[in-house]
Amino acid sequence: MAAKRAADFIPLAHPGLGITGVEVDIQACAPEDASGHPMSDGEVLSVTSSSRSAPAAAMTTEELITSAAHPHGSIVITATVSCHGRTGVEMEAMTAVMGAALTVYDMCKAVDKGMVVGEARVVRKTGGKSGGWEWGVKVEDGNGEG
């Protein structure tokens, strides 16, 4: 629903796009210790400092999931939007992801006041006037940047 309402939230977003499909996937990730190993039930984590690789450096959803320690668990939300026409739907996909994240936050806030809605980004775009784009592909190699 959020993808179809993106133009209501974002100035200059194209209203009335011919969106033909929106798929939102939410993946729950088990709690992990600072080394990235899944924790068993009842195991307690004590962390004074940890080094985490930046999620922005990850190229795939799987790499994003494993790119940082999540001592309390996490979710990864992926949205795929398609449409007829030559207008990109990146903002509609981002709105779908953030709408889903805010929905999860709203449902869980009574249980955990310390939740964080983290980074969101476009990882791949195909079609449209500007052509395709993929996270991590250098501009000089083709049509992306990283």
UniProtKB/TrEMBL annotation:
This is Molybdopterin cofactor biosynthetic protein. Pathway: Cofactor biosynthesis; molybdopterin biosynthesis. Keywords: Molybdenum cofactor biosynthesis. Residues 32-53 are annotated as: Disordered. It comes from Ajellomyces capsulatus (strain H143) (Darling's disease fungus). Residues 1-128 form the Molybdopterin cofactor biosynthesis C (MoaC) domain. One of its GO terms (biological process) is Mo-molybdopterin cofactor biosynthetic process. The keyword Cytoplasm does not apply. It comes from the Eukaryota.
